[in-house]
């Protein structure tokens, strides 16, 4: 499993109190981060969360770096919006992901409908990449060089890039990106790769095409715009991540949100959402070359989901009023278990937790599976009670296993039971 067998500070890291980036790094990830909407940069409440580097160690601009923002007219570059989030990340010393260069959407008409020949389009791409990556040179941990080149059905997506250049726009763009900033990770980024279907197969082919052309690619971003109740399991997700790490690239969850298809979500739907978030986070912890997790916003107050998928939403970790949702507790608990749950190396036994999963700790564990009211575990009855939405069981959990009335403890997954 990943790094750290830190047992120090275990109490301080308990899921209820410690924060997500802090826990993620102690669990061996590089970061836990969030997208930041440029429109919220002057919202003091929102920004207090963004600036909390224990919670978010990595930022990505939601819109500012996209083509329609950075080069709205040919050869006219503007970085007013693009600079907003990177500047904040630099001030806070947060890791910056940069997003995105060659994408069919949020693409100005002068590119989309330019009627360019292949060679002219090559020069348009090169000019764009050189300018934008040059502007941010040295600031980005990673760049999403090509975004969403595969259609939902697994075909190559129709776009001005594919329709003009065929798949050669892929290695071409990655080569140009390496030349423009040799010290950033170059990513292919897409959604619905998580389901391991025809689209995933095509994305594997895409990596192969780039590599076989001798062009560089360092990572594949799984956007993970998922749906409560249809999110793949932890092991399914780890399997699909490994299809890509087997090709020698790193992976990351880059735009994670898990939406409810009907609103408002019930208590059990909120718990289910927590379980789905847990599966995603655990799968990243299971795969060594999964470097980090980025959520696409953190509060339901501001999310692209309701605008794009009307009638759905509540996809994030904090509700409209910045209250932590069960999903926050779930993510926090999974990370805390991974941060603190590794058994002391001296006692051998253990073996790798990787296959059957996560933090091997000991017994306690499965007693929570049937949940509702504890039994075994080290906490004596009459011990502390957990509040609504708080964690009350799971592998490695050493906190309260009884819930304050009228709540009861519900099994969510092996790593997490919850009071509601
Ligand atoms: C895939 O979907 C696209 C657009 O939705 C469509 O144009 C294309 O024909 C589809 N391909 C196949 C093989 O069904």
UniProtKB/TrEMBL annotation:
Residue ranges, compositional bias (Low complexity): 341-384
Organism of derivation: Stachybotrys elegans
Signal peptide: 1-18
UniProt keywords, alphabetically: Carbohydrate metabolism, Glycosidase, Hydrolase, Polysaccharide degradation, Secreted, Signal, Xylan degradation
Source taxonomy: Eukaryota, Fungi, Dikarya, Ascomycota, Pezizomycotina
Localization: Secreted
Residue ranges of domain CBM1 in the record: 384-420
Region (Disordered), start-end ranges: 341-391
Principal cellular location given in the protein's record: secreted
GO cellular component, one term: extracellular region
Catalytic activity: Endohydrolysis of (1->4)-beta-D-xylosidic linkages in xylans
InterPro entries assigned to the protein according to its UniProt record, in alphabetical order: CBD, CBD_sf, GH, GH10, GH10_dom
GO molecular function (one): endo-1,4-beta-xylanase activity
Protein name, as recorded: Beta-xylanase
Family the entry assigns: Belongs to the glycosyl hydrolase 10 (cellulase F) family.
Domain GH10, residue spans: 14-334
Enzyme Commission designation: 3.2.1.8
């Amino acid at each position: 499993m990943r790094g750290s067998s830190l047992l120090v500070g275990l109490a301080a890291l308990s899921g209820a109190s410690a924060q997500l980036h802090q826990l993620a790094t102690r669990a061996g990830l590089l970061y836990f981060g969030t997208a930041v909407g440029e429109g919220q940069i002057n919202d003091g409440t929102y920004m207090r969360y963004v600036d909390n580097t224990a919670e978010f160690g990595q930022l990505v601009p939601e819109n500012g770096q996209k083509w329609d923002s950075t080069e709205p007219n040919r050869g006219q570059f503007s970085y007013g919006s693009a600079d907003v989030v990177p500047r904040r990340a630099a001030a806070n010393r947060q890791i910056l992901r940069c997003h995105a260069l060659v994408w069919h959407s949020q693409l100005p008409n002068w590119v989309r409908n330019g009627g360019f020949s292949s060679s002219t389009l090559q020069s348009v791409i090169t000019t764009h990449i050189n300018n934008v990556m040059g502007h941010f040179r040295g600031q980005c941990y990673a760049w999403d060089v090509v975004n969403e080149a595969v259609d939902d059905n697994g075909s190559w997506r129709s776009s001005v890039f594919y329709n003009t250049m065929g798949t050669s726009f892929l290695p071409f763009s990655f080569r140009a990106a390496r030349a423009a900033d040799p010290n950033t990770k170059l990513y292919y980024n897409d959604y619905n790769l998580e389901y391991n279907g025809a689209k995933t197969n095509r994305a594997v082919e895409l990596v192969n095409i780039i590599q076989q052309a001798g062009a560089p690619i360092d990572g594949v971003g799984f956007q993970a715009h998922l749906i409560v109740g249809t999110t793949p399991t932890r092991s399914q997700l780890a399997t699909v991540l490994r299809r890509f790490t087997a090709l020698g690239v790193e992976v990351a969850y880059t735009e994670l949100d898990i939406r409810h298809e009907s609103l408002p979500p019930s208590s059990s739907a909120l718990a289910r959402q927590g379980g789905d978030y847990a599966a995603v986070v655990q799968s990243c912890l299971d795969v060594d070359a999964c470097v980090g997790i980025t959520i696409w916003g953190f509060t339901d107050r501001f999310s692209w989901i309701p605008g794009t998928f009307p009638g759905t939403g509540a996809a994030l970790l904090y509700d409209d009023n910045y209250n932590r949702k069960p999903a926050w507790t779930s993510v926090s608990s999974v990370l805390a278990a991974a941060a603190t749950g590794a058994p002391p190396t001296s006692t051998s036994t253990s073996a790798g937790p990787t296959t059957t999963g996560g933090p091997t700790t000991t017994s306690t564990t499965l007693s929570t599976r049937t949940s509702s009211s504890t039994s075994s575990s080290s906490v004596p009855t009459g011990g502390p009670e957990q509040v609504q939405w708080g964690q009350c069981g799971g592998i490695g959990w050493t906190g309260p296993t009884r819930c304050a009335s009228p709540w009861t403890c519900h099994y969510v997954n092996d790593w997490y039971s919850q009071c509601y």
